[in-house]
Specification:
Elements: H1 22-50, H2 60-67, H3 70-98, H4 102-129
Helix pairs in contact: 1-3, 3-4
Length: 149
């Protein structure tokens, strides 16, 4: 008795409609964002911990000085967005693997999406609206780079 198996790439009688494959794009995103995150994280750690005076120099003035420069605003925004989305995508994968109940899976993914959106919005808001030199603040509490009022 002989069994014939058609080649896997043989054209089928009915062609299926191709849909957006979120698992494939999630997998690709995890690899691409992981590479970029390694560069961003090590750059962040180098500037904050190695360059300059090290850990003892990190204070309100240091952070305020960094966040007053557009380069560091973009750097920190990329770090924030990529890390949060990377982590949320990993959590989505865990929810898909371990939540067997469809309703529970939808609730978990909805909560994960809501938390990610809120954290991205709040973090981005802080990065771009942070003012290390607020008007009316006592001069002795302001960082050294603030102009005297």
């Amino acid at each position: 008795m002989s069994v014939t198996i058609e080649t896997p790439r043989a054209p089928q009688g009915v062609r299926r409609h191709r849909r957006f494959n979120i698992e494939k794009w999630g997998w690709i995103y995890m690899r691409a964002s992981g590479v970029v995150l390694v560069v961003l994280i090590f750059g962040h750690l180098f500037v904050n911990l190695v360059a300059g005076e090290g850990v003892k120099a990190i204070d309100f003035g240091f952070v305020g000085g960094k966040l007053s420069q557009p380069f560091w605003q973009i750097w920190d925004t990329l770090l924030l967005w990529l890390a949060l989305i990377h982590g949320a995508n990993g959590m989505r994968t865990i929810v898909n693997d371990y939540a067997n109940n469809r309703t529970l899976r939808i609730i978990f993914k909805g909560a994960l999406l809501a938390a990610t959106i809120v954290l991205i919005l709040l973090g981005t808001l802080v990065i771009y609206t942070f003012d290390p030199c607020p008007a009316g603040a006592p001069a002795d509490l302001l960082p050294s780079f603030c102009p005297a009022n």
